[in-house]
Design goal:
Blueprint: E1 10-16, H1 27-39, H2 47-60, E2 63-69, E3 84-94, E4 100-111, H3 120-134, E5 139-142, E6 156-157, E7 160-167, E8 181-185, H4 190-204, H5 214-219, E9 234-239, E10 245-253, E11 262-270, H6 273-284, E12 291-297, H7 302-306, E13 313-320, E14 323-326, H8 329-335, E15 342-349, E16 357-364, E17 367-373, E18 380-383, H9 384-391, H10 397-402, E19 406-408, H11 413-421
Parallel strand pairs: 4-5, 11-12, 15-18
Antiparallel strand pairs: 1-2, 2-3, 3-4, 5-14, 6-14, 7-12, 7-13, 8-9, 9-10, 10-11, 15-16, 16-17, 18-19
Bound molecules: acetyl coenzyme *A (ACO).
Acetyl coenzyme *A binds next to strand 4 and helix 3.
Length: 433
């Protein structure tokens, strides 16, 4: 063993999450999950929670990266417990017009406090992005704990949500009645229904990221954070006029000791505008309750416009949600739709190289041809992070220019870029990973 002050040699290992045919969590997966829980200040997982979490990772097809030290100090965590965790897996993102583009999702990033700021995150991230690029993926995405970490790796805020508190007293009245009706259900039906309703939401909502396995189990009240069932979860379904379920809400009461009495939305998925408003009408009708709290409402929320008193909705927070990283500008910008015609030449700075270069985006008939330019001067310049923010149309190029994140080299180019990339539908997703 070296001197205790020495920085140890690190061993990086990437392996698939694994559970045996008999249901036993494979030891490396179990150790990785225990370290991840510690990194996010969660309880050390019970056997039930460990089993649930491991099966979810396997169902997601997650690749786990662990960083190991071979000779840990005596009495400290053993060599099987990683000092850092990282996971990646593949899911689609709706990039507009119902086009679903496969993307590289990154989550579960933790580094033990005793090993931080030695470049472990940087190495896990750069190697993961390299693997994604080799597999031909054009986009990477993550949701973040702190907004200061990932810009340096080329990620930019692409979608946002509002946290809202809705007062459900007599002022809550919809201006028009949504079609269909709502009925209560045993939350366990969501195990099957939730993915089907979500798939319809995913296809209609630009910015939506396909969901990981855990969502349906949690919404069905079958997996609490501590493992095992969550008996407080309740559910309601929205039926369209043909009797088909096109929306659901899973919710729980905060209990009698909360003032005002509060119902928390755990998950609300609507595959139609009527389902969204119908579910809100239901939530507002719950008796012995004064307030409904929801932490993933659209920034452009139809509820506010649907109410006789828009002040029933209080926005308590604007949260950055999905951060996008363009790995292949040509494939990414040719995959999304375009509502207008036009062209602009964009220069991209990218410290990691993936999106670096000058690209001409020329859009016509809803599609764009994107070409790499070697001689043409860029009309605007951005870094990779701003490119990720602009990609879906969720960020306004004029606003990013005012913020110093887009530089204009040809008069009017920022306005042209903004018109070219504007989305013809609101940008909204409800998956956190
Ligand atoms: C997608 C997700 O999973 S989000 C969850 C992120 N995880 C957490 O918040 C859990 C608690 N935090 C941690 O575990 C660690 O502090 C981590 C993962 C954030 C950082 O890990 P480290 O190994 O210390 O990062 P590393 O040494 O590779 O630093 C890479 C760069 O990020 C910077 N950085 C690291 N952490 C932070 C931070 N919290 N805020 C701002 N900058 C940061 C470093 O200064 C360094 O910058 P540079 O390379 O440009 O000089």
């Amino acid at each position: 063993m070296g001197r205790v002050s020495d920085i140890p040699d690190y061993r990086f290992r990437t392996f698939p999450a694994s559970v045996s045919a008999e249901g036993t969590v494979e030891p490396d997966t179990a150790a990785w999950l225990r370290v991840e829980s510690q990194g996010f200040h969660e309880d050390d997982p019970s056997d039930t929670a460990l089993g649930d979490a491991a099966r979810n990772l396997v169902a997601d097809g997650r690749q786990l990266t662990g960083v190991y030290v071979d000779q840990p100090l005596p009495g400290s965590y053993g060599a099987h417990m990683p000092v850092a965790t990282f996971a990646d897996f593949e899911r689609t993102i709706n990039v507009g017009g119902g086009r679903l583009l496969p993307a590289h999702l990154i989550s579960s990033v933790t580094v033990r406090p005793t090993h931080r700021r030695r470049g472990l995150l940087r190495r896990m991230m750069t190697e993961s992005l390299d693997r994604a690029r080799e597999r031909g993926l054009a986009l990477a995405a993550l949701t973040v704990s702190e907004a200061t970490i990932y810009r340096r790796f080329g990620f930019g805020i692409a979608t946002s949500v509002h946290h809202i508190d809705v007062t459900t007293d007599s002022r809550f009245r919809l201006l028009t009645r949504p079609s269909g009706r709502v009925e209560l259900a045993d939350a366990r039906v969501l195990l099957d229904i939730a993915p089907r309703v979500f798939a319809r939401f995913h296809e209609r909502s630009t910015g939506s990221v396909d969901r990981q396995e855990r969502y349906r189990w949690r919404s069905a009240g079958l997996q609490s954070d501590k493992g095992g069932p969550d008996a407080r979860i309740r559910a309601a379904l929205h039926y369209d006029d043909a009797g088909e379920v096109d929306g659901y809400v899973a919710y729980r009461s905060h209990g009698w000791d909360t003032t005002p009495l509060t119902v928390q939305v755990v998950d609300l998925v609507a595959a139609s505008d009527d389902a969204y408003l119908g579910l809100w009408e239901f939530l507002a009708a719950i008796d012995l309750n004064d307030r409904v709290r929801y932490h993933a409402a659209p920034v452009d929320d139809p509820l506010r416009w649907a109410l006789a008193d828009s002040r029933s909705v209080a926005v308590t927070e604007l949260e950055d949600w999905v951060w996008l990283r363009i790995l292949d500008p040509i494939a990414a910008f040719e995959a999304r739709p375009y509502a207008t015609e036009g062209e602009v030449t964009v220069g991209v700075h990218d410290d990691l190289g993936h999106a670096a270069g000058t690209f001409r985006i020329a859009a016509a008939d809803g599609f764009a041809t994107v070409t790499r330019e070697f001689d043409a001067a860029p009309e605007v310049t951005v870094d990779a992070s701003a490119l990720g923010s602009l990609y879906l149309g969720g960020a306004d190029a004029r606003v990013l220019a005012a913020a110093g994140q887009v530089s204009e080299h040809a008069s009017g180019a920022v306005g042209r870029l903004n018109r070219l990339l504007a989305s013809d539908t609101p940008i909204y997703g409800i998956s956190h990973f």
